[in-house]
Design a protein that fits this description.
- It is built from seven helices and 15 strands.
- By secondary structure, it is α+β, with helices and mostly antiparallel strands.
- It has two domains: 3-54, Structural Genomics Hypothetical 15.5 Kd Protein In mrcA-pckA Intergenic Region, Chain A (Roll), CATH 3.10.290.10; 62-236, Pseudouridine synthase (2-Layer Sandwich), CATH 3.30.2350.10.
- The strands form three sheets. Strands 5, 6, 7, 8, 11, 12, 13, 14 and 15 form a nine-stranded mixed beta sheet that branches. Strands 2-1-3-4 form a four-stranded antiparallel beta sheet. Strands 9-10 form a two-stranded antiparallel ribbon.
- The longest helix has 9 residues, at 15-23.
- It is elongated.
């Protein structure tokens, strides 16, 4: 990897910023001062320091976001704030993207990464990664509704995979909640599934994706990197 690319990916600024830093003599490789930004290094074996402080290079990032209402699951948008804008203060040096998507008004677990292979495994229909949602709905569900979800529902031009549906207890007597588990991620899928049984989703919140469950200590809008154990579980998919 080029030295300037490593420094840029490690949060030391733009390529222009990094070039000036290198030319100033602030960077050493294995104890030797370097001034050429085009030098190639081995990130895993070469010791790169800035002002004598070692730089720990990280190639891939895996971020858990408790997505808030009102931002979209995209890398760029002309009208709305995106999930990438939301985490830019800490990850502007990384080309993150959302793994799948949540609707603008859907909250909860969203993974952000720059690991394309892992993202593909999590979203590919053939892997059937379960995604669990809690839905505030307009009417109580019935045994027939549960069976309908289990049998698959025709929506637009496709039939959903079998999905699990169950009632959830509610702390508010005027609120009705249900939990649904799906194994794909079509556009507005959960909302359309409830519409097909003459019900309406009033609020939707994702709590898990595969083996990863939303950290209960993350308030809406907060985020953190995955733990080593969470990452190990993901890579077993």
């Amino acid at each position: 990897m080029r030295l300037d690319k490593l420094l840029s990916h490690s949060g030391f600024g733009t390529r222009k910023d990094v070039k000036k830093l290198i030319q100033s003599g602030a960077i050493t490789i294995n104890g030797e001062t370097v001034t050429k930004s085009s030098l190639h290094i081995e990130p895993e074996t070469d010791l790169v320091c800035c002002y004598d402080e070692p730089i720990a290079y990280q190639q891939y990032y895996y971020v858990m976001l408790n997505k808030p209402d009102g931002i979209i699951s995209a890398t760029f948008d002309h009208l709305h704030e995106t999930v990438i804008d939301w985490v830019a203060l800490d990850y502007q040096h990384v080309d993150l993207f959302p793994v799948g998507r949540l609707d603008i008004d859907t909250t909860g677990l969203l993974l952000l990464t720059n690991d394309g292979q892992l993202a593909h495994r999590l979203t590919s229909p053939k892997h059937q990664v379960p995604k669990v949602y809690q839905a505030k709905i307009a009417k109580p569900i019935t045994d027939v509704d549960i069976a309908t979800f289990q049998n698959g529902i025709k929506i637009d031009d496709y039939v959903t995979r079998p999905a699990q549906l169950r009632s959830l207890p509610s702390n508010q007597p005027d609120e009705i909640w249900a939990e649904v588990t799906i194994y794909e991620g079509k556009f507005h899928q959960v909302k359309k599934m409830f519409q097909s049984i003459d019900n309406l989703v009033l609020k939707l919140h994702r709590i898990s994706m595969g083996p990863i469950t939303l950290d209960e200590h993350l308030a809406e809008g907060e985020y953190r990197e995955l733990t080593a154990e969470e990452l190990r579980l993901l890579k077993e998919i």
